[in-house]
Structures are given as C-alpha cells and as structure tokens.
Amino acid sequence: MKVRHTSPARLGLLVISLLWLVVALPLSVSAAPYAAFVMDARSGEVLHARNADTRLHPASLTKMMTLYVAFQAIENGEITLDTTVKISANAAAEQPSKLGLRSGQRIKFRYLIRAAAVKSANDAATAIGEILEGSEAAFARRMTRTAKSLGMSKTTFKNAHGLTEKGHLSTARDMSTLGRHLLYDYPDYYNLFSRKSTDAGVKTVPNTNRRLLSNYRGADGIKTGYTRAAGFNLVASAERGQERIIATVFGGRSTATRNARVAELLDMGFKRAPSRVALRKPTKPAYGGSRASAKTIRVVGAVKKSLRPKARALRPETAPVLVSLKDDVRQALVEAQVNGASNGQVTRASTAAVLSSPKPAARPKALLLASLTQPKPEPSVKPKQQVVTRVSTSGGQHWGINIGLYPNRYKAERVLLKTALAEMNALDGARRSVTERKTGYDANFVGLSRERADLACRRLAARNVQCFMIGPSS
C-alpha cells in the first residue's frame, strides 16, 4: 500500500490558511468602522472628510475632553494644579491603561493631568472627573455640555476615560473640532501632548503617541485611543512653517497602519492647504463649571433672581497698597471721552476731578479699625500685594463684581480703569481691586451693595463684558 506524504511547505501553507480562516477573517469582518477628517487648523477649513459625521466609539480620544474641562476649571479658579486629590476606590479599579493609583492615595492634580494626556491613564482620568464634579457620571454630563458649547453636536460622553459604554459616541469631525480648541484655547497646556515622556508623580510615563511624534516631521500631538469596539483612533496635529494641519482617524486596524494613514492624511493636508491664510481662532465657550456657579453668579442678560454667592476670601497677609496710575488714568479718560461723548458718560469736569485728586478720601472708621487689627507680616518676608487703585467709601457694603482673570497686574488694572470710566454711575464709590492668584490676576470691583453690584453686572453684560457677582463671606 502506498503512503502519501505531505511536504513541509504544503503543510505550512495549510496551517496558515486555517489560521486566516479562524482568526484573521473574523477580525476583518468585525473590524471597527473607518472614518477620517482633515482640516486646516488656522482657518477651520475642511480639506478631507470620509464618514466624518458617523457616530463611533472614540476610545481614549475621550480624554481630550476630560483635559479640556480640567484646563477650563484651572483657568477659572475651580481648582489649582497643586490641589491634592484623594483617589477613590472607583478610580483605582479602572481597567488599563492606567497609572496604577491606589485607593486612598493622594496625588497632585497636575500629575493626574500629565498621566491622562501622555500615558492615557484611565484611573487618572476618572480621578479628574471625580474631584471636579463629585462623581464620574456628573462629570460625563458636564463633558457633554461642554462638547455642545464647542459645536460638537453629535458627541455624547458617558465616562471620563473612553472605555466602551453604551451611548458613549463621537465623530471624526467633532474630535477634530475639539483638538483645534485645545490648541488655541489652552496653548499654555498644549505642550503636554508633544512630550514623549513625563513625570506623573509616582513614575515617569511614556507617551502613547511617541511613534508618530518621533517619525513625522512637525507632529506635536494630540491623542491616541484604542478599544476593540473603536479600533485604533488618533487625532494628530502637525505644524510646518506657517501651516498647521489636524487629521483624525477612527477605526484603524493597528497602531502601525493607523499611524501610516494619519501621516498620509497630514501630507494631503499640507499639499491642499494654502501657504498663507488668515488665522481665525475658534470662539472660546463661556465657562460652565457647576461648582463655580455655586460660588458666583454669571450675568448674561437681565437678572431675574440673584442667589447669594460665596466670596473669594481675601488673604489675611495681603496689605492694601495705594498706587499712582496718573498717566494711565489720563490715557484711559481720553479714550473714554471719545467712546462716551455721545451719551455724556465722561465730562471735562470728571476728567479734571480725577486728574487733580491724587489724594484718596479718608478711610472709613470701620475699615481703619479692621486694618489696624490685621496681623502684620514679618519684616523679612515680602508679602504678596493686593493692589487697590481707589479707596472705597462704601461703608459696610460687602458685595462686588469680577470682570476677568488677566495674565499680569498691569492688564487687570487697565481693564478696571476703563470699565470704571465707562460705567461711572453704576460703579461710583466702588474700589478697584487686583488680587494675585496662581493662575493670574483677578480684576474686581468691591465695596458695593448687592443691588448696585447686580445693576453694574447687568450694564456690563449689555456691553458684552463678562461679569460675576461676588458676595460677602458666608
């Protein structure tokens, strides 16, 4: 009887065919849907789109919104980079990728941001959400509200990290829009996304996007993502000369093929984009932090009902210091006369009164007694100063308004001065106060009654000036 022998080559081919039928074919059939989007970041012009509005699983691209909300919260004083966060059991139990945080562990907020941006750590993302909103579910609702304010109309978030969850969906177009806002709304934080590694407090972590950052000229971000349902996702940005392109891919088959496709899309973008184009930055949305709204009142129109907010406590060590801004006063008064001549807001008499009165009015007895009882700083320590450019005659009136946070004291003083001249009636008797904070300088008018603070905010809102009422300490 003849025995038929199978050659090793034929046997190997048979094994490969079986593996393809059993493994590769099912995976290719069930692969995540593909979508792509390319835009000129400078103008927002669409250069390429394919399935760009199909709602798909974003995976860890979700953390772009987690970080956007975190940056927004820092900017508006809701939290600081050095705030210590206690890790919950829920955050510590998140699935990888993770930083490895333990329940009860304490870590600074800045390290959670770094870990979420660079390592794409799910435990860090959840901890960010919980410290800002109390629970991840509440934070996800805030993320969705923020997305709508950015124009991301087809995006809904259910968690802070991006692990697959029913209803947690976005689009290639929406994620590109978010990437553009990160770039232009928070340029001081954007450098996080280009770091190939970073110190995350407990250890140094590598960037999940380091291959593209290393291999594509001009690439400086932004975020990778992967789950089985989503496939391999990436929002990438690159700059060459005066041109900047953002490209997004959903549903890549592997890290290598996804990166290759993104590189092709970026190349396409640089070829199609004009060398020179007017920069049109996206409009930054109004702040909508839920915890901040419990402390202050945002006035966007006529006030129907004013709740009593909590005031920012003044530091006991800050001593009011009178400063001279005569030249700035003169220049601002001239500007105010030009702008307000038609409605009689600034007169020659008021100009002369301001310029000829460098000596402030006497401090009321109540305020004088309070200043005498304040603890004085040690002679060797230079205290941080709160700059007061006008002494208040408001007596026991303890309400105020905030008109913004500015990068330096000079800008804050200038804005206060111009605002005071533009609304001399509503702000008469108010004290212009610049308070230094870690994130900048607060421009406040203090020493108002509640009714006058309300009126002033409504008048400023009519001028499209953002305004917060600041109430007395509770």
What features would you describe in this structure?
It contains 16 helices and 16 strands. It has helices at 8-29, 62-75, 89-92, 109-119, 122-133, 136-149, 172-185, 187-190, 210-215, 255-272, 290-295, 326-340, 348-355, 365-373, 409-422, 450-462; strands at 35-40, 46-50, 84-86, 106-108, 197-199, 204-206, 219-227, 231-240, 243-252, 297-298, 320-322, 386-388, 399-406, 431-437, 440-448, 468-470. The chain is globular. Helix content is 39%, strand content 18%. Mean pLDDT is 80; it is low at 22-29, 291-306, 314-326, 338-358, 365-373, 378-385 and 387-395. It is an alpha+beta fold. The N and C termini lie far apart (102 Å). Helix 2 (62-75) packs across helix 5 (122-133) and helix 12 packs across helix 15. A 7-stranded mixed beta sheet has the order 10-16-13-15-14-12-11. It has a 5-stranded antiparallel beta sheet with strand order 2-1-9-8-7, sandwiched between helices. It has a two-stranded antiparallel sheet with strand order 3-4.
Radius of gyration (CA) equals 28 Å
Largest sheet descriptor = 7 strands, mixed
Shape: globular
Query: Helix content range of the residues, please?
Result: 25-40%
Strand order of the largest sheet: 10-16-13-15-14-12-11
Roughly how many Å apart are the termini? 102 Å
Count of helical stretches: 16
Strand content bin: 15-25%
* Overall mean confidence score, pLDDT: 80
Report low-confidence residues grouped into runs of 5 or more: 22-29, 291-306, 314-326, 338-358, 365-373, 378-385, 387-395
The total beta strand count reads: 16
